[in-house]
Automatic annotation (TrEMBL):
DNA-binding listed as a keyword: yes
Record-linked CDD domains: PBP2_LTTR_aromatics_like
Native source organism of the sequence: Paenibacillus eucommiae
Name of the protein in its database record: DNA-binding transcriptional LysR family regulator
Organism superkingdom: Bacteria
Pfam family, one: HTH_1
Similarity section: Belongs to the LysR transcriptional regulatory family.
GO function terms (MF aspect): DNA binding
UniProt entry keywords in alphabetical sequence: DNA-binding, Transcription, Transcription regulation
Residue ranges occupied by any HTH lysR-type domain in the UniProt entry: 1-58
Keyword DNA-binding: yes
Gene3D superfamilies the UniProt entry points to: Periplasmic binding protein-like II (3.40.190.10), Winged helix-like DNA-binding domain superfamily/Winged helix DNA-binding domain (1.10.10.10)
């Protein structure tokens, strides 16, 4: 059974006349009659009762007409869906992100993308940058918010946000009385940091800035999440250096303070596989660029 046979059948069923149906289909009547006979043979049923003056649908023909119309409707829908998918209007996009991206840039970009492309199923996976790189290699994610630098030939990177780090200290700490701090002011204080394997470039930059200030940081605790860093600082276990957007947590019992001079800098970038030309990725990148430009 072929699609054109279904179209021929519908024309005859609606016209109930082979001559008119043939004219409608812009073909001659004999091949039309042959195609209908072939369709009946393939189905093993009689679709029409025929006389010289009259054509009528059988019960089987009436049921087949209903189903045939649904087939054409579904086929047209499939065509439309395929065209929209090719244009990046629907589909599935797996998004990786570092937890700190939720403090500022990620919610706005995701919201804007979902408003513009509501038929795209956006699947979010929280994971540190090293895990995202592994996920890209395994094709588990399509695009990701990563902390750079990232050195991987498989990936293309687009910087979308940069911020300066700030110090976070317990409210009762004597340093909290200052308007701002220098790196030297943090000498001798116990540090709580996100462990190096989670965010290697940032960890190394903090250690480097401390050494430039004349001391090696006394790292009391390494943790996996920035939220945990802030919580342990609030508990009085130490101080830390965090992205300035962390202050959006509105955490109790801590004070966020600007660092004078050469404070650590961090960059958020979007990453994707260079060989992935999905229009969904391009739409997400366009949304991110438009939104970050409007916020500059």
């Amino acid at each position: 059974m072929e699609l054109r046979q279904i179209e021929y059948f519908i024309a005859v069923a609606e016209e109930l006349h082979f001559g008119r149906a043939a004219k409608r289909l812009q073909m001659t009547q004999p091949p039309l009659s042959q195609q209908i006979l072939q369709l009946e043979n393939d189905l093993g049923v009689t679709l029409f009762e025929r006389t010289r003056r009259h054509v009528e649908l059988t019960n089987a023909g009436k049921v087949f007409l209903q189903e045939s119309r649904q087939i054409l409707i579904q086929l047209e829908r499939a065509k439309t869906v395929a065209q929209r998918a090719q244009k990046g209007m629907l589909g599935r996009l797996a998004l990786g992100f570092v937890g700190s991206a939720t403090f500022d840039i990620l919610p706005n970009i995701v919201r804007a993308f979902q408003d513009q492309y509501p038929s795209v199923d956006l699947i979010l996976h929280e994971m540190p940058t090293p895990m995202q790189i592994e996920a890209f290699h395994r094709k588990h994610i399509d695009i990701g918010f990563v902390r750079t630098p990232v050195d991987d030939r498989l990936l293309t990177l687009l910087p979308v946000h940069q911020e300066t780090c700030v110090a976070v200290v317990p409210n009762r700490h004597q340093l909290a009385q200052h308007r701002s701090l220098s790196m030297e002011d943090l000498s001798g204080e116990p540090f709580i940091l996100v462990e190096r394997e989670v965010w290697p470039s940032w960890y190394d930059d903090i250690v480097s800035k401390c050494r430039e200030a004349g001391f090696s940081p006394n790292i009391r605790q390494n943790v996996k999440e920035i939220q945990t860093v802030v919580g342990l600082v609030a508990a009085g276990l130490g101080i830390s250096i965090v992205p300035s957007s962390t202050s959006n947590l509105h955490a109790r019992d801590v004070t966020f303070m600007n660092i004078r001079g050469s404070a650590p800098q961090i960059t958020m970038s979007l990453a994707w596989r260079t060989d992935n030309n999905s229009p969904l990725i391009q739409h997400f990148l366009e949304t991110a660029v438009q939104l970050t430009k409007s916020c500059d």
